[in-house]
Each structure stands twice: as structure tokens, then as C-alpha cells.
Amino acid sequence: MTAHRYSQRGVMLLEALIGILIFSIGILAVIGMQAISIQNIGEAKDRTDASFLANEIIGKMWADRGGATANLMNFEYHGGGATGDLGAWVGKVKASLPGSIEPDVSITPIIVNTGTGNYTAYNVQVTLKWQSPTDASTSQAPHVYTTTAFMQWCAPNATGAYMC
């Protein structure tokens, strides 16, 4: 009986150490998942900000296009200097998105044939690019958000009906 008792010495300590090891691995896994979750939340915020900023400039184009889109082409931007609302928006993009690369706003006139005549509509494409510090350190490609809007302006005729 005494030989059996001596062979069991230290087994409880070994079981406790294995239990602590398993518990520690579980805690480290939870901490790792938390870190990834925080990173994903930051990336989701950047994508949401990019969407908001792109829609903001399109909204300004709608509001300030002038008669028959006279001011619309003032919003085209491919880098460089910008003034007024466009300059403020470019500054906001650079301040809001981490590692922001020059935004691009392309406005392409499109001639639309209605069968009874032609009118000009505009295809507006806003592209925003940014790169988080983590992405830059691992040489990953920048994030890109692109949205497109189709704008047309219809003028009322003498009877008040809108003609395009």
C-alpha cells in the first residue's frame, strides 16, 4: 500500500499545472480575438467615413450645381489645389481618413438621346483611397472606396412640365 501511495505523489500538482496551462492558452486566444475585433472596428469606421465623405461631395454637387449644371464641373478634382467647398471637402477627407491619398472626383458628360432630342447628363465618380498605419507597415495595397452618381438636370418648359 505504501508503494502505491508514493507513486501518486505530485500528480495533483501536475494536474493543477496542466489546468493552468490550458486556462492560460484560452485567455491568450480571447485577448487575440479582442485585438482583431478592435482592428476590424477601426477599418469599418474608415469605410463608413469614406462612404459619408463621398456622399457628402455628391450632395454638395446637387445643391450647388447652378442653372443647368453650370457649377457642376467646378467639382472635378484629380489632385492639386482646390478652393471653396471642394477645398474644404478635400481637407476633410485628408483629416478623416488615415494615410489618405489624393481623392479623385471625375465628372463625365453623357449625351442622352430621348428620341425627341438630346440632353446632357453627367456621370460622377468619387474615389477615395487611404492606408492605415498597419497596412503601410506590411506593404498592403490601400483601401479604395468608389461611388458613382448619375446627374441630370431637367428644365421646366413654358407649361411647367419638366423636359429633359
Describe this structure in words.
It is elongated and about 110 Å long. Helix 2 (11-63) packs antiparallel against helix 3 (84-96). The chain is an alpha+beta fold. The chain starts with a helix and ends with a strand. A hairpin with a 5-residue loop joins strand 4 and strand 5. It contains 4 helices and 5 strands, in the order H-H-H-E-E-H-E-E-E. The protein has one domain. A 3-stranded antiparallel β-sheet has the order 1-2-3. A two-stranded antiparallel ribbon has the order 4-5. The chain has helices at 2-7, 11-63, 84-96, 133-137; strands spanning 101-113, 118-130, 143-152, 155-156, 162-163.
Concise account of the structure shown:
By secondary structure, the chain is of the alpha+beta class.
Which terms would index this structure?
single chain; 164 residues; alpha+beta; three-stranded antiparallel sheet
Radius of gyration: 30 Å
Average residue-wise pLDDT? 83
What is the β-strand count?
A: 5
Decide which structural class fits the backbone.
Answer: alpha+beta
For the sheet with most strands, the description reads: 3 strands, antiparallel
Content of β-strand: 15-25%
Integer tally of domains: 1
What is the overall number of helices? 4
Uncertain ranges = none
Distance between the termini: 103 Å
Shape: elongated
In spatial order, strands of the major sheet run 1-2-3
The proportion of residues forming helix, as a percent range, comes to: 40-55%
SSE string, helices as H and strands as E: HHHEEHEEE
